[in-house]
Design brief:
Order of helices and strands: HHHHHHHHH
Strand content: under 5%
CATH topology of the largest domain: Rna Polymerase Sigma Factor, Chain: A
Number of domains: 2
CATH architecture of the largest domain: Orthogonal Bundle
Structural class: mainly alpha
CATH class of the largest domain: Mainly Alpha
CATH superfamily of the largest domain: RNA polymerase sigma factor, region 2, helix turn helix motif
C-alpha cells in the first residue's frame, strides 16, 4: 500500500472516528485533539500496519489506547501527595461535610425530578443508583434484564432532559 493510499483510506475514516472520539471524551474539542493524536500516531507507525489486515480496526485501536493512556496520565497528575507530618492536606480536604444552601437546594431539586419519573422508570433507576445489579433488579421486579437496562437508560435520558441546568 502506497503512502497516498494509506493517507486517503485513513482520512476517509475521519467521520467515523469523530463519533467514536466523542463517545470517549464527551467533548468536541477533546474529541478533535484525540483524532489528531490518533492520526499522528498512525502516520508515524504506518510501517507497522499490515495491509492484509483491517485499517479501520487498527486506527480504532490506536485511538482507544491513546485515550486510555491519556486518562491514566491525567489521573496520576491529579493525585495528591501529602508529605506533611500529620497529613494536613489530606485531612483538611476541600470537600467538607457541611451542607451549604446551594447543595441542599440542588439535592432537593434532583430528588424532586427523580421522584417525578413514572414508576416503571423511577423504581429501576433508584434501585440501580442504590447499587443493585441489573440481574437483581430484574429478579425483584420480575422483568427481563434487557427491559431493566432500557428503563434505566430512558430514566436517565428523561432526567438529563429535565436537569439541563446541572450539566457542564
Amino acid at each position: 500500500m502506497t503512502a497516498i493510499e494509506f493517507n486517503t483510506k485513513m482520512l476517509s475514516l475521519k467521520d467515523n472516528l469523530q463519533y467514536f472520539a466523542y463517545s470517549l471524551t464527551s467533548n468536541h474539542e477533546d474529541a478533535n485533539d484525540l483524532i489528531q493524536d490518533t492520526f499522528v500516531k498512525a502516520l508515524v507507525h504506518k510501517d507497522k500496519f499490515d495491509p492484509a489486515t483491517n485499517l479501520k480496526a487498527w486506527i480504532y485501536t490506536i485511538m482507544k489506547n491513546t485515550f486510555i493512556n491519556k486518562y491514566r496520565k491525567d489521573t496520576k497528575v491529579n493525585t495528591i501527595i501529602d508529605n506533611t507530618k500529620d497529613l494536613y492536606f489530606l485531612n483538611n480536604s476541600k470537600n467538607s461535610d457541611t451542607i451549604t444552601p446551594d447543595s441542599k437546594y440542588n439535592h432537593g431539586e434532583l430528588l424532586r425530578e427523580v421522584n417525578s419519573l413514572q414508576d416503571e422508570h423511577r423504581i429501576p433507576f433508584q434501585m440501580h443508583f442504590q447499587g443493585y445489579k441489573y440481574k437483581e433488579i430484574a429478579e425483584q421486579l420480575d422483568l427481563s434484564i434487557g427491559t431493566v437496562k432500557s428503563r434505566i437508560f430512558f430514566g436517565r435520558k428523561k432526567l438529563m432532559g429535565k436537569l439541563k441546568d446541572f450539566q457542564n
